[in-house]
Amino acid sequence: MKITENMIRVQIIARQLVTRQRERWVTDVRGEFGMNSIIGVAIGLIVAAFVLIPSLKTFATTVMTSMTTWWTGTINGTLFPTK
Question: Measured between alpha carbons, how far is 75 from 72 in angstroms, rounded to an integer?
Fold first, then answer.
């Protein structure tokens, strides 16, 4: 659930950044387009990192715990039981 919520937040932030960039493209006549684009992309990546990285850690922990439980319960317990 957290991952989905965080992904929605990132999408909203990305849309806002794209909208701002479009407005800058139209109004910027002096050639500052390159710097504004680089700054916009950097901000988007930083925000995405702060939102996604903690969620990915939780997700990876959950996956590894589930895989360990599955391996010990199903594979070792059923297919290769040791007495």
Answer: 6
